[in-house]
Amino acid sequence: MSAPLAPLARGIDRVTRSALGRHQTAVIRIGISFAWLCFLLREWPNRHEMYGPDGPWSWDMARRLTADNHAFTALVWSDGTLWFETVYALAIVSSALLMLGWRTRIMSVLFMIGVLSLQNRSVFLGDGGDNVIHLLALYTVLTRCGLVWSLDARRARRRTGAADDTGQSGGTRPGADLDVTGILLWAVCGLALAVTQALGPSRMSWTADGPLPGLGWAAVFWGLWLVQGLWWCVRRYAPGEPRTVLDTFANLAHNAALLVIMAEVCLIYSTAGWYKIQGSRWQDGTALYYPLHLDYFSPWPELSDVLGGNSVIVLLLSYGTVAVQVAFPFTLLNRRAKNVLLAVMMCEHLGIAVTLGLPFFSLAMIVADAVFLPTSFLRRVGALAGRARDRLLPAHAASIPSQREDEESPRSLVG
Known about the structure:
By secondary structure, this protein is mostly helical. The protein has 19 helices and no strands.
């Protein structure tokens, strides 16, 4: 009876004992925050027309729409310019700090609030790339995306190194891990949440109109805030079995979110490919001819004319796009085929960014594709980036303990 259950036991142990795909989730964290930050900075002169009080989609229209579809956005709490500027600035700051990996647990929540607030304020401005960022912002909150390639990871290595120098073998001295900055940030977030609830315009329910049935946004935000406080208390005062239990739940949430992200990417490509098959223009291989001749999607008219004027290239690109999107979910059964097709898809998105002038859409899709990149490849890229940083900043490199975490990282779900 035990032999058939052994693989199941090993699988359960694997998903509860460690956070899989740590490098992949770090790439997602860096990528989506970088894409959103660049978008916000580029649209800074147009922010009032896009999401603010000067936009064609007025504040009253947005408030009535969100009252009907129950989408979350902090911008309907007030129609004042100061409040809009505050939310927009919060979105920029949280994106930058999340990209650097500073206080990723809190910054991931603030990043999600910024994305939802702006995108749900003017729902008709978004495209497929905005939808991808929207979804990844929600899932990233549940991941342990700061375990590698982050300021949090560097701070943890420094703390561990200091503890090892005292001979305490990975432990910490009483008071050594008193994180004053983290405590103040946690308290400020709790105060802001309490003020928001007390003032009343937030319309955040405890049991309705939230991300899940029976779970309102008030319950979500307060729950995340309390879990963060509980995590710090257990780490400081109960480092034994309670810490192990919390680590197990955190690993389960991380691995589940990673699996959902992978399924979401497969769903995006499979639905896009199968819907294209039903279109007559894709069937006869002329679909790409039309966007290449639209002024709106022609940042390089000469390049568009060259591509659109060659019927063979248009035919190959049209059929190749459909074939790649339909085939990608099935290539996950073979690692080598998956890696080849993944490189083709990323090159395709780079081509879309250049020829059709959709850089943020392409960047969002490349970041989503990165969840399937092999861990060995990401570690080599990280090592090359680390050596380049050490050459540029030798004093900075000498002050950082060696990152043993990368060397000992377990194999991930995606290789």
